[in-house]
Amino acid sequence: MTGVDLFSQHIGQIKGVENFMVLRHDGHMLTHNMSQPEKMSSLATLTGISAQSIQKTMGFTPFRYLVFAREHNQSLIIFTLDKFYVGILAKTGFNLAELIEDIAKFLVKIKVKRNPGNSPKEEEE
Question: In CATH, which superfamily holds the domain spanning 3-116?
Fold first, then answer.
């Protein structure tokens, strides 16, 4: 099983995740479980690139996530993970703060595994 397969298996088990996608910073889709991911992947890539550009230009700290409210109380959350963007469609009516926290913890674990010399505290900063 590849790393992408393991990631897909685990991210889909997080309570509150309806659908997900993983994209490289150039917009190339690595994996997803959406029926029509094209519009969402474009949105995730363009906003991720824009947020990182603003961050670098203005000297802000790197963004952790962006949230877009959609029709019918469904939200799209975009996280950054190294050279990737992770897009999450939250289940309707789910506690968004709890979901963001759970996904952020999951992504920190991945970063620590990829960079074993770093502690979770260092990765969160």
Answer: Dynein light chain 2a, cytoplasmic (3.30.450.30)
